Amino acid sequence: MLRLPDPTRQEHTEARTHLQVPQLLERNIPVLATLALTTVGAIAWYALRRPPIPPTAIPVSDFELGRYLGKWYEVARIDNRFEKGLQRTQAEYSRMPNGGIRVENRGYDPRKREWHIATGKAKTVLGPDVGALKVAFFGPFYDGYNVVALDPKYRWAMVVGSQLDRFWILSRTPFLPMGVEERLLRQAREMGVPVDRVIWVHQDGVNPTGSY
């Protein structure tokens, strides 16, 4: 025999369900609060921490941040997922009103025929006279930026990140002065940088006026 649903029982079930939801939420408030505090704590830790510096990557001393600011051409790098396939890559560093450093990276994608631009921020981590910085492009997630070789006139620089395969050679002009390439690669090899993975960035066609 077909039994019809009891509307009274259905109402009681719905009432119990409505009562259970706030009770479940109330019971889980400590758990949710702990998760929220853990997330906030993790973000704060990432923002305050000092990224690791490879033992062989010793940042330069007598570093003058003011002289380092300005425009640099990326003449060589070990490719990474953010710059893969990009040519004519450049970086520009400038002071922000709060004393921090604004970072603008740009590179040209020849396949799409367009420029890719990324803006971030940087801070010194071992004092203003040591070439050890940290750079972030995504919220509080910083990576190391260690200037391990620097021309006395600030015409070129070699940079290593938190790992030795995060590697760049920068120049104030699209090309390095004669003999500098060999010197820097020799130093990088002695540090343990995988120099066989270094690529030389195509910089032809950069407007000498500095526009892009």
Brief digest:
The protein has 212 residues and is an alpha+beta fold. The protein has 3 helices and 9 strands, in the order H-H-E-E-E-E-E-E-E-E-H-E. The longest helix is centred in the first third of the chain and has 42 residues, at 7-48.
Description:
With about 210 residues, the protein is of the alpha+beta class. It is built from 3 helices and 9 strands. It has helices at about 5-50, 65-70, 180-190, and strands at about 70-80, 85-95, 100-110, 115-125, 130-140, 140-150, 155-160, 165-170, 200. It has an 8-stranded antiparallel barrel with strand order 1-2-3-4-5-6-7-8. Strand 3 (about 100-110) and strand 4 form a beta hairpin. The longest helix has about 40 residues, at about 5-50. Mean pLDDT is about 80; it is low at about 1-5, about 10-20, about 35-50 and about 205-210.
Gross geometry: globular
Category by helix and strand content = alpha+beta
What's the total count of β strands?
9
Major sheet characteristics:
8 strands, antiparallel, barrel
Terminal CA distance reads 83 Å
Radius of gyration: 26 Å
| Average predicted local confidence, pLDDT | 82
Strand content: 25-35%
Question: Unreliable stretches, pLDDT < 50, 5 or more residues?
Answer: 1-5, 10-19, 35-48, 207-212
Helix content: 25-40%
Please state how the strands of the largest beta sheet are arranged side by side.
Answer: 1-2-3-4-5-6-7-8
| SSE run | HHEEEEEEEEHE
Q: Please, how many helices?
A: 3
